[in-house]
Specification:
The complex is a heterodimer of chains A (246) and B (113). Chain A has 246 residues and is mainly α. Chain A is 74% helix and 0% strand. Chain A has helices at 5-8, 11-40, 45-54, 58-69, 74-84, 86-99, 104-113, 116-125, 133-163, 176-189, 193-208, 216-232, 242-245. In chain A, helix 2 packs parallel to helix 4 and helix 2 packs across helix 10 (176-189). The longest helix of chain A has 31 residues, at 133-163. Chain A is globular and about 50 Å long. Chain B has 113 residues and is mainly alpha-helical. Helix content of chain B is 67%, strand content 4%. Chain B has 5 helices and 2 strands, in the order H-H-H-E-E-H-H. In chain B, strands 1-2 form a two-stranded antiparallel sheet. In chain B, a hairpin with a 2-residue loop joins strand 1 and strand 2. In chain B, helix 4 (72-86) packs antiparallel against helix 5. The longest helix of chain B has 21 residues, at 2-22. Chain B is extended, with a radius of gyration of 20 Å. In chain B, 41% of the residues are buried. The chains are: A mainly alpha (246), B mainly alpha (113). Chains A and B meet through helix 2, helix 3, helix 4, helix 5 and helix 6 of A and helix 1, helix 2, helix 3, strand 2 and helix 4 of B.
Chain lengths: 246, 113
């Protein structure tokens, strides 16, 4: 939690802030264009501001905007959001050992703020959950610092985008910068042959199944990739090593 | 009334964010991931990211892009190539964004791809 003194006075907090700053321009362009896209789709300023402030998930926002504009039923919008956010369920399994040392309210706050970039950079910086209290403090401080700047960046640029809709036409496509950032993040996860295979299978399946409703192509892609990689994995069953965990 | 519906939808979406991001650490119960799931976890994060970005690069309005003159795939390719060349250096993700946009914007705005 960035508002806890123990976190923002810890040196790792600022290390997290700097790590997030390195990715800030791409996220800023994405946030800006998401703000622009909401208003362009016909959403009211009130709805756009509320969505930017509380939903805090760029890919869900982009998926939900056309559905909201088309007056889709709420359950359709929510079901779509669950599919788009399925990756965070996967990330949460990985983050569990880091998180369980903290009280539940802190886990929920940290979890809410930990989006793709914070998850990936955090688990690369700390490939193993620390067994001792000082290491755990550093982990939490780093994560807090990382999502602190990431959140300010996303919300700030989103609000600017809502205000500047006329000045930054959506057809410029600046929002694609966010996808390019995720391309970089994905490349940084491709540390073994099976992981490259996982990405290729997942990407192919999700594109092939893109016509499915409710973004179910996301479920199909993950299931196909993980199932195939587990079948092909001949390594002995053991606890994850640092290379695995990253 | 319409506004209230929308507020309800936004709150529901915020709850989806909390529940999905915290899914496996909401409960205080001690619990161990089964070993087969731990195995699957090695490949799941990269799959989970790729399924979100691949359709953003390769599809248009629910279909695979029919016309190869689309600025997104060359930009993504340039980003990937840049990342491979930068391997191991810090801040390489910023480089992937800048490289990709340097390919994307001229093709998209200049040639209308």
């Amino acid at each position: 939690m960035f508002f806890l003194r123990a976190n923002y006075t810890h040196p790792a907090f600022w290390e997290g802030v700097r790590a997030s700053a390195a990715l800030a321009p791409g996220l800023a362009a994405w946030g800006l264009m998401t703000g622009v896209a909401m208003v362009n789709a016909g959403m009211s300023t009130f709805d756009s501001v509320l969505m930017t402030l509380i939903v805090y998930a760029g890919s869900v926002q982009l998926a939900a905007i056309p559905l909201l504009a088309a007056q889709a039923p709420m359950w359709v919008i929510v079901a779509t959001a669950v599919c788009v956010n399925l990756r965070f369920v996967v990330f949460s399994a990985h983050l569990r050992p880091y998180m369980m040392v903290w009280p539940r309210w802190q886990r929920l706050v940290s979890g809410y703020f930990t989006a793709d970039l914070s998850y990936v950079q955090f688990t690369q910086r700390f490939p193993h959950p620390s067994p001792d209290a000082s290491g755990q403090r550093a982990e939490q401080a780093f994560l807090s610092g990382h999502y602190f700047l990431t959140w300010i960046n996303w919300v700030g640029t989103g609000l600017i985008g809502i205000a500047l809709t006329q000045a930054v036409p959506a057809h410029w496509g600046l929002g694609f910068a966010g996808i390019l950032g995720l391309v970089g993040v994905t490349c940084s996860l491709a540390t073994s042959r099976l992981r490259v295979l996982s990405a290729v299978v997942a990407g192919t399946a999700s594109v092939a199944a893109v016509a499915l409703p409710l973004k179910l192509n996301i479920v199909v892609g993950i299931a196909a990739a993980v199932a195939l990689c587990m079948l092909m994995d001949r390594s002995p069953v053991r606890p994850p090593s640092p290379q695995d965990a990253a | 009334m319409m506004e209230f519906d929308h507020v309800l939808t936004m709150v529901a979406l915020a709850l989806v964010t909390v529940v999905t991001r915290c899914f496996f650490f909401i409960s205080d119960q001690p619990w161990q991931l089964p070993s087969w799931a731990e195995r699957g976890l090695r490949y799941a994060p990269i799959a989970a990211l790729t399924v979100v970005i691949a359709p953003e690069i390769l599809t248009h309005q629910g279909h695979l892009i029919a016309d190869w003159r689309d600025a997104r795939w060359p930009a993504a390719l340039a980003s990937g190539a840049f990342f491979l060349l930068q391997r191991g250096r810090s801040h390489s993700i910023l480089g992937t964004i800048v490289t990709g946009m340097a390919v994307y914007l001229p093709l998209h705005l200049g040639l209308g791809w």
